[in-house]
Write the structure tokens for this entry.
Amino acid sequence: MGGIYIHPEKISDFEKVKNLCPFGAIEVSPDGTIQINSGCRVCKVCVKNGEPGAFEYREDVISATDKSEWQGITVLGEFLPSGEYHPVIFELLGKARELADKVGFRVSLVLIGNEIPAIPNLFWSQGADQVFVYDAPLLKYFDARLYADIVEDFALKQKPSVILVGGTPAGRSLAPRVAARLRTGLTADCTELDIQPNSDLDQIRPAFGGNIMAHIRTPYHRPQLATVRYKIFSPGQPDDSRDGEWIYCDLPDGLSASIKHIASTEKPKVHNIEDSDILIVAGRGFKKKEDLILARQLADELGGELACTRPLIEAGWLEPRRQVGLSGRTVKPRLLIACGVSGSVQFTAGMKSSEMILSINNDPHAAINQIANYSFIGDLYQIIPALLKFIKNGREQ
Amino acid sequence: MNIIVCIKQVPGTTQVEIDEKTGVMKRDTGSAKMNPYDLYAIETALRIKEELIDVQTTAITMGPPQSEAVLREAYMLGIDHGILLTDRKFGGADCLATAYTLSQAILKIGLPDLIICGKQTTDGDTAQVGSELAEFLELPHIACVLKINSLTNRSLEGVMDLGDFTQTVELPFPCLITVDKEIYEPRLPSYRKKIATRDRPIQTLSFSELPDQNPVHYGLDGSATRVMRVFPPVHHKQNQIFEGTPDTLASEISKILIKMKVL
């Protein structure tokens, strides 16, 4: 069985060993026996930081797919009920092209829907070599199991090494079904991707909910699935000299819907934080809900939107759509002012591409200071009112 | 009608730090709590129980033995049965192996009419296990359900979040849903229920009781992904730090805002 194996004879201090595991998976019984419980995430920190030889990582290769049979990088495109392509497609195509050129792969795009507009040149110039279209009335509305049937059909026929899926609500519902169907690995919300000469995909994502990054591979299974949130990557430079193949695919036999569509409704247009040039982000430095008025006033004065970090959403202080971070929205505003935000990786991954980041925080060691362009160390309860006064005075002059 | 709710114990804090010199991760392993999103899944099950007659609710969790705490909490909220899925053989499981193990446990105890999961956990943040579980059990599913419009003994009508759109659909039972925070306001644990359920047993399931007895389908062996390494994030930006009185700082901020033509 693969996992972490313990060699107790090489351990001198059993008390110290307990604290080695960030997940508390190392258990030392009163009688001195030591074992690893099911909390183990195989992060290998104990192997690296324990006494030499005390913890050993063993891996059994159960069955490995023949990687040479699986070639090419596929982007799973999402077609919106409004009749438009989701723009994350172009960001994924840009990244797919970059990776494919490193290993000599082709880039394909799969489109699933009904009455999909054919605008091939757009996709060729953005990096696709082939577009596979599954177009039928049955496929008009998103249905995770039905769409997984389609992706399975495509994957078994075309055998792509990598499938990239946009980290949209639909993509995040569909990709796991596909991964389970094909018994393969899926890495969610990747923030960096690279590829090895043997076609192993290097996937980097913030991990374990904390201030750490994990480098993840799917070494024995194909295809390798990854989701990437909108606005994490940028589209490539369009190349109008490129050409490709537009292929209409037959539906697999015995296809049927798993759910009955009743209505698709456009949400009322709200000011999305992703679309705002200026964001004021409130963090846990705010002591109570009522105090958010400070951040709201600042947002109003600067013509921006109020946003926040996850703890404020969990406390129910603001609507979930205002959350910045990987589990919320990814934003790239011209100006972001973080007020009382500590700067967890989960958060910064969702905003670090902002053009200008200011931080107001009373902790000079907060992680946010490492990514902010300018950090102002002090009490937001004093600095924001002072700033509001400055703005007001300036306007009156 | 039977409902199974999948829940998970997660670290009480998301503040994990790596000591840059020694590379040791520091986390307060003492504190743990129920994944906040699971409270919404439990609430959904309890609302259905209140609405329909003869509904049995079961919470299932997979993790080390101390995960029993979240099942106790589920009892305090009003869940009828608790199942702890624990075995060293399940250690090192990624989403795929976790979902597979859960699917085996659910086949063991009997497929319910409805499985409810939270939309994601706060430690893994992948939002994958619910959809993968649906696939392993060959059930239809919808994710990020914002609202349940109506419910019969045969199907439910729910509204799922698709970003700028919502999609209202009817799902026949058996099926799986993952629920978002908008669905209901979760209730608080009840002291009265805590006392009443103090002696209520929790069923433990281990590898030897699952239908699939092939150990390579579980834990690390059953996982398709491998963590190559973990490392502290790298920051690139040049940072300038200002300290001083609130007025000095406010004045410096406004200078930047004027330069950017925001003011």
Summary: Residues 36-51 of chain B form the longest helix (16 residues). Helices of chain B lie at 36-51, 68-77, 95-109, 129-136, 191-196, 246-259. Chain B touches chain A through 108 residues (CB under 8 Å). Chain B has a mean pLDDT of 91.
